[in-house]
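Sample entry (449 residues):
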Amino acid sequence: MDRSQDRHRGQQAPRGIVVAAPASGTGKTVLTMGLAAALRGRGQRVAVAKTGPDYIDPQFLAAAAGGPCLNLDAWAMPPDELRVRASAHASGADFIVVEGVMGLFDGAAGGGGSTADLAAALGLPVVLVVDASRQAQSIAATVHGFATFRACPKVCAVIATQVASDRHASMVRDALVLRDVPYLGAFRRAGGLALKSRHLGLVQAHEVQALHDVVGAARANVEANINLDTLMLLAQPMQPGDDGVMLRLPPLGQRIAVARDVAFGFSYAHMLDDWRYQGAQISYFSPLQDEAPSASCDAVFLPGGYPEIYAGKLAAAQTFLGGLWQAAGRGAVIYGECGGYMVLGRALIGADGKAHPMAGLLGHVTSFATRKRQLGYRQLENAGHTHVLPPGLRGHEFHYSVLAETGSDPALFLSRDSRGEEIGPTGGCRANVMGSYAHIIAACCPAQP
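Predicted structure, serialized as tokens:
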């Protein structure tokens, strides 16, 4: 990372918790925002992290914590790497709050990658968040089942969400208060806490005009209803990791221009940190503002995002598109992930069926008019047409657009799913320009199971 991994040595490990749930849709993100903001209000220096592959929830957690959010993926990263990254990220913090994904024990097809796996690797206890909107006393059975299903990690406490009234809160409290798992309170249903969604999840945090008010409302809800004193007592020190096991993602170059705006918002902080740690300098530019990458860069990274929403504006951004051609012409590496890959193709067909010309640095055409959801982890082997990327990588896909025309460029990757079943060649590579629908999470040995 951009600061030494050794900095945290000799320092007391921060205490922390993992916020998990029986299923998606329980309100984990808003609650985690509230917990982070409320802990900061008590003078705690708070670090936040998110389980698994997710670009959007971390933006909200970062806003609540006043600092970056780290993605920790127990499928793509081995336990020691998780511990090293988490320890470096939380260096100088008093408390770390990690938001889970899906249900506590849900992970990749074929196993691994669950929130429970991450909590066990970090040595952190779980605060179970249960949606009480359609139940009362039955919540106790849910909590009992999750608390006893697996010995590690430990479910140290429970919080009820979507509690609508004082009577409902009283029934839930009476069902849980004398159980073995401490009951911390009810996060009440309230106005001002709803977050809008679109096809890839929540809208991005910087698109929420009243984000400060949402954070404030979540904090007030926690402070009024959740027993923070007990939560802080139940937190445990995070386990340290062995720095020697780290396998970092190598930089694309030494001067990397990264696209960053609402159309290109899906870049992992740990990837950029790995690049900086290895000496790369990173600059940013906005394609939507028709900005070109720096003329001095020797690499360009086009992350994923929502180019399909802004296809017309991107097609008209001639300074941006011309800057890509100039960078390619002088030999700079240009790498695009998902949305970035779509922009590197010849055209992007919007939801209305209209084709918008893109950079044309690769030969494919993508379409958002014909939609098919692609979702899952990917084992990626470099197909051998570039030496810029490592031979083995782990990543994921989540997109609705499809390849309308594949083009004739050699494949960038040979892809398998999380079970190791072959998907086939994917992406494209033409000299120093390359991309695919996959988002890279971590480097690995190609033969890693």
